[in-house]
Amino acid sequence: MSFSATSRKQDIERLKNEELDLLTIGGGITGAGVAIQASAMGLKNGLIEMQDFAEGTSSRSTKLVHGGIRYLKTFDVGVVADTVQERAVVQHIAPHIPRPQSMLLPIYDEPGATFDMFSVKVAMNLYDQLAGVVDPQWVNYTISKAEVLQREPQLKSDKLMGGGVYLDFKNNDSRLVIENIKKAHEDGGLMVSRIKALDLLHENGKITGVHVLDLLTNEEFDIHAKYVINTTGPWSDFIRKMDTDEDFVPQMRPTKGVHLVVDSKTLNVPQPTYFDSGKQDGRMIFVVPREDKTYFGTTDTDFHGDFEHPRVEQEDADYLLDIINERYPSANVKINDIESSWAGLRPLISSNGSSDYNGGNSGKISEKSFNDVIDVIKRYEKEEVTKTDVEDILNDLESTLSEDKVSASQVSRGSSLTVSKDGLLTLAGGKITDYRKMAAGAMAAITKLLKDNYSQEFNPIDSKNLPVSGGDIDPNNVEATISFFAKQGMDNGLTEEEATLFANLFGSNAARVFSQMSHVKASEGLSLGEMASLHYSMEEEMTLTPTDYLMRRTNHILFHRDTLDAVKVGVINEMANFYSWTKEEKAKQSADLDATIAESDMSYLK
Question: What would you measure as the largest C-alpha separation in the chain, in angstroms?
């Protein structure tokens, strides 16, 4: 089914003329999660996003679906258990996106260290137990100082004790959003970007819809719905403030995270690595290899600036470069080595303590339970007890902590689902890993409201088994399936590298991408594969601007900076032809793309 500029016009006409069961404001991962479930359950539902899908927070994460192992230092098991269990669900429903990888956690003997060599093994064992990790390929282990340096020769050796290795998952955040949105649209939802909510509509003291502005045509119109849910992340308070019938109390405390990208030759990190900042500030830093680049972050600082345009500032860059050059002293990374960057806001809820993991006040174990865990693992290492004895202690620990339920307003730890007296639902907080669980909680509340107030009944779905678009892949056989799709691309004339890239990006939709090759041709700056990818994206991913494609559909701006200048010309020219842009519109789109690239390049700091 087409999901394009054409379907956008059709969907807008329906939004103007039909009453919806549910309207979602916000097209990031939280709104996408609600939309896919609402569509699958048969609700007449729509979603509006004032920017491109995922343009805000949901394309600006650390691009990992990680489990928060640092919280096991204090045995904050509730947070980690929720996350690692939900991580497996996300990998099941979107198997081409989260992909397993081994994370290295080097351990230094320094003040304020999160772990020492003993406690990291305890934490990793518990982590594996909570995550159900049994595959020998991914079971955790510790390594010596010499082996850490053999793996990563650029790491600082002074005070290095050794390291831990455990399972984590890399992610493509913006692809996860668009694949959810596409599936929601395929199942009947009306999904429209570049529509801005201006005001909430009321009738008889109840919210009945939203007055909106089409940012592409400057047309204002009303969308009517029985229920409206606010999933705008850091913008949640802006929407809540529109509800003049409600006493407004701010609930969000957004923080900014920053990531910088350099060539792998500058900073050679063969596997993802996670370590303390070394500044005794409670922060930890990720360093992740990706597509011949290495990126690192993050800073996690309170943010009070322009929500639409968070960017890397001098102090952010100085902070990260100082840490990286301390940990990798021979790299000597300078600001001019940075090829690209991104900054994003985390939608933290003030009442959760604004933890960077958003875990809030989840339960801690008692001192006795802590000592039991330490004792049994020490005895296991001395071969005095069996692995089963360890598992019994950990299972008992998890059972005890399960009594610490999330509060009534929460649908996952660190999240909040509220309903105002006039009916506005707001789903906020959480992490990208929790999005499906948050949406399932919201949909349970929404379907109950529809039943109680409108006598409408909808069959529940098992969203743990609802694959996203492109996710029709056996999660236990991902690599072989991706290779199968890549072979189709190679049979159509692509190189193995290019065919594999597109198979990984588009999953089971790769065949639809490759089918484009029968009626498109390579052009200046664009290979045949890139042309096929671009046309697929315009026709089936509502890609409306060059920045949509190069930043969020392909991550080209972030991880392929060395080929970007050549490719962008071809993208602009082909999109101008496809959309019949005027000379002025083409110039505007080109200028907008250049501004995005300049910001990513951090030209203003160099």
Answer: 78
Q: Locate 490 and state its tokens.
A: 């190679």
Query: Is position 77 within any domain?
Result: no
Residues 544 and 595 in one domain: yes
Angle between helical axes of 173-186 and 29-40 (0-180°, round to 10): 30
Q: Which amino acid is at 422?
A: D
The half-sphere exposure of 380 on its side-chain side, counting CA atoms within 13 A, is: 19
Coil/strand/helix, residue 202: strand
Strands 284-290, 219-230: parallel, antiparallel or unpaired by DSSP? unpaired
72 domain-assigned: no
The answer for residues whose C-beta is within 8 angstroms of residue 222's C-beta and 6 or more apart is: 16, 201, 209, 210, 211, 212
pTM of the model: 0.91
Nearest to 224 by CA among 208, 205, 240, 246: 208
What pLDDT is stored for residue 91 in this prediction? 94
In this structure, the answer to whether residues 287 and 366 fall within a common structural domain is: yes
Instruction: Say if 68 falls within a structural domain.
Output: no
For strands 255-263 and 273-276, give the pairing: unpaired
C-alpha separations of 376 from 11, 80, 152, 372 in Å: 60, 21, 33, 6
Instruction: Write the DSSP symbol of residue 548.
Output: I
Local mean pLDDT, 10-residue blocks, the chain (606 residues): 93 98 98 98 98 97 87 73 89 96 96 91 91 93 98 96 96 98 98 98 96 98 98 95 83 92 97 93 93 91 87 96 97 97 91 43 52 72 75 59 49 82 94 94 97 96 98 95 96 94 97 94 93 98 98 97 95 98 98 98 96
Burial class (CB in 10 A: 0-12, 13-18, 19+), 438: buried
**Residue in the structure block whose two tokens are 């190069």:** 550
Is residue 215 within 8 A of residue 196, CB to CB? The reply is yes
Q: Do the Cβ atoms of 571 and 534 come closer than 8 Å?
A: yes
User: Do 433 and 65 form a contact (C-beta atoms < 8 A)?
Assistant: yes
Rounded Cα gap, residues 109 and 98, in angstroms = 33
Burial label, 222 (beta-carbon count in 10 A; 0-12, 13-18, 19+): middle
Give the domain extent around 508: 478-601
The answer to whether residue 554 sits within a structural domain is yes
Which of 467, 469, 503, 498 minimizes the C-alpha distance to 485? Answer: 503
Residues 229 and 330 in one domain: no
Please give the tally of structural domains in the chain.
Answer: 3
Q: Determine phi and psi for 204, rounding to 5 degrees.
A: 55, 40
Whether 583 and 457 share a structural domain: no
- Tokens 């309170």 correspond to 302
| Residues 271 and 208 placed together within one structural domain of the fold | no
Give the phi and the psi of residue 82 in degrees, each rounded to 5: -55, -45
Distance in angstroms (rounded) separating the CA atoms of residues 463 and 180: 12
What residues contact residue 213 under an 8 Å CB cut-off, 6+ apart?
Answer: 195, 196, 198, 219, 220
Domain CATH code at residue 491: 1.10.8.870
Query: Which positions ≥6 away from 475 have C-beta within 8 Å?
Result: 91, 92, 95
Contacts of residue 273, Cβ cutoff 8 Å, sequence gap at least 6: 103, 104, 105, 106, 152, 155, 286, 287, 288
